[in-house]
Design goal:
By secondary structure, the chain is an alpha/beta fold. It is built from 11 helices and 12 strands. The structure holds zinc ion.
């Protein structure tokens, strides 16, 4: 069943767990995510980025996602990750996405507020939740260059941003990065605590691939309610394809079956760590 972000994060915030937001790049990964969440009776967020929307085609991507979500008993949010324009946000709304991110983090604060608020006004009128970003989360995701360095969020700006935009979810830059970590990330827990104390919205963690269980748990205790995982699923899918071909398997149906099994295990592991197992209602 299709739910909004507010529907699934309300209980996560009150009961102190996080819901995984898993990026899909094709049907195999999307099905693996949904199968994992169904198996563990967990709410789940499935999301994709503008480059993949372009790659798959928005209509094809949304019809596929909505059809697969319709078959699920658990609550599923269909979310636009790192939306980069009002136009794309509108198109995703028309195509049935139940949650939209507008990433204005590269803009000056004033403009980030202005454009995020525009997206919020349009989405809220339809009961759709919105995620915004403040500070700049480094690294590269889906070939979208997001800046090489982390500009960490300024908590006082977070308070202003949330109050003025009425955003439902905020992604604060606190030291995580997209892609693969080349060295141990330094996470600014104190900064996250300050952001939590100055804001009332839900908080999302980007760059969730490759962190330790300890790091996830610490951030959930402080108040993270949504954790994005993309890179680990991409690598999981690619490794399965590579192994199959190395083993002489070239039949796509067989490779897809193995991808569904392998990626599902990665997602199940995250769901258990995030604490959302058996939280579907
Ligand atoms: Zn991100």
């Amino acid at each position: 069943m299709l739910y909004t972000m507010n529907d699934v994060l309300k209980e996560a915030k009150s009961k102190g767990y996080a819901v995984g937001a898993f990026n899909f790049h094709n049907q195999d990964v999307l099905e693996a995510i949904l199968n994992a969440a169904e198996e563990l009776n967990s709410p789940v967020i499935v999301q994709t980025t503008p480059p993949y929307i372009q790659n798959l085609g928005l209509e094809v991507c949304s019809v596929m996602a909505k059809e697969l979500i319709k078959r699920c008993k658990i609550p599923v949010v269909l979310h636009l990750d790192h939306g980069n324009s009002f136009d794309l946000a509108q198109k995703c709304l028309v195509n049935g996405f139940s949650s939209i991110m507008f990433d204005g983090s590269k803009l000056p604060l004033k403009d980030n507020i202005k454009y995020t608020k525009q997206v919020c006004d349009a989405c809220h009128a339809l009961g759709v939740s919105v995620e915004g970003e403040l500070g700049a989360i480094g690294g590269v995701e889906d070939n979208m260059v997001e800046g090489q360095s982390n500009n960490l969020i300024i908590p006082e700006e977070a308070q202003i941003f949330v109050e003025e935009t009425d955003v439902d979810v905020l992604a604060p830059a606190i030291g995580t990065a997209h892609g693969i970590y080349k060295e141990e990330p330094i996470l600014d827990f104190a900064r996250l605590k300050k952001v939590r104390s100055l804001t009332t919205c839900y908080l999302a963690l980007h760059g969730g691939s490759g962190l330790t269980e300890e790091q996830y748990r610490e951030m959930i205790i402080i108040g993270i309610n949504k954790i994005n995982v993309g890179t680990e699923l991409k690598l999981g899918w690619a490794n399965t394809v590579k192994k199959a071909i190395e083993a002489g398997i070239t039949e796509p149906m067989k490779i897809r079956s193995q991808c569904l099994i392998d990626v599902r295990e990665i997602v199940k592991n995250k769901i258990r760590i995030f604490g959302s197992e058996n939280r579907a209602q």
